[in-house]
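Support case: user asked for a sample of complex input and structure output to validate their parser. Sending the pair below.
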Amino acid sequence: MDLDRSNHYSLRRREVVKMLLDQRDSGMLIVAGLGAPTWDVTAAGDEPLNFPLWGAMGGAVSIGLGLAIAQPTRRILVITGDGEMLMGLGSLATVSIQSPSNLAILVLDNERYGETGMQATHTAGNVDLAAVARATGFSECHNIADKKRLRSLLPQIQNGEGPLFFNVKVRAENLPLVLPPKDGAFLKDRFRVALFGSDPVR
Amino acid sequence: MTLWTNDIFQVLVNHQVRQVAYVPDAGHTHLINRCGQYSEMVSVPLTTEEEGIALLAGAWLGGDRGVLLMQSSGVGNCLNMFSLTRTCRMPLLMLVTMRGEWGEFNPWQVPMGQNTEKLLKAADILTFHVDESNRLGEATEAAARMVFEGPAAAAVLISQRILGTKTFME
């Protein structure tokens, strides 16, 4: 484990998410993994078609998959962290079997558990999440460590044929919290109203 | 055996269930096959049962109804993920084949089998324990109504008495 390595990565997580969501297609649906990715997505704008998680650790990719199957004409982007992804590695295999062309997964990998005191995750060792995704059968897996590469892959992340997996190495840093609404039922109903109109229970 | 799975399948069709998530169990074999052959349903095999809780939450966000098929041991894997169901008030329909409750030959199944219903209740999930095969259709119908018209979370527990005791001597 190398606890120092991620202190020196050039990419900053808020910048990355802002780049991703600045040119957001209005039809794109976002699932944000608990902790920092939820704060990052909210910092870029609290939108009804975001589903920001405050829990359900290990479940972000599975939520994205259920959504991708239900909404095949929309782009689904799961933005999560390395700790959250590590807890749900099996879900990558489950996605691979379904092979949804509209699903992209992007991990903000700072090699730390940010919400619990910045302890090392397994990616501070030899674990390569993009290689894991490739091994489960994802055809498109990329490691991204600088802005040039991120910029060149943006069209892929936003429109490429899925399932796609991007592991973005970001600097370990604790940033001011930008919190979305906390009530899960509200977040769900807000999302469904934005998608289907005024009656969220059809 | 095939009769009750047909009853359950018909209930799922009537309720427009689309995503069928499962970790296989011998007792679910026929239902899994039926759903897999039906073009209006998408079968999603899982690596572990809690993926199904998250998957079906995503399904509902996107307008799909779903069902999770698993055996009783899988309920234990789901416990923390039930927080998602409850906090977000997601509908959740589960069909659970029971092990460890009636003539079980494998003692490793007993701790979870004996506590499945207790743990589901502790998680505020409605339970319908059925030990007569001719009542499975109506129990699934009752559960599905409460789930999709609630929304609520509910599990139909399919007794090991219906499924028969598994042995390694077949």
